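FORM 7B: Structural annotation worksheet

SECTION A. Query
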Amino acid sequence: MSSVELERVTLPPVLGDGTAVTVLQVRGDIDITNIAAFELALAQPADGGLIVDLGRAGQVSSAGFALLHRLVRQGNAAVVVAGDGIVHAAATLVNLPFHESVAAARDWLVPG
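SECTION B. Predicted structure
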């Protein structure tokens, strides 16, 4: 059984733009054993937008990538896959739109 830790962090508004963005930090593997918890975490409201940071994810299953694709298509959300590990390679292979850093994802969500 794989484990995953999901932590929500709110980034304060930058330069008084008034938009606070929520970051969902993922640590561990996203697979069939915890996909329901991941889906619930993605469904939580994030008024200024949601950034899913996969920088510390070990692996992401096809079901996890499907949820992320749907989230990005719905708008007001971005995915971060930093580095060149297995998650980066898989995200590239499944053509998931992603950013290399939380800062870049925030800039994309909240253009200044």
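SECTION C. Observations
The chain is about 35% helix and 30% strand. Residues 65 and 91 are 8 Å apart (CA to CA).

SECTION D. Sign-off
Analyst initials: ____
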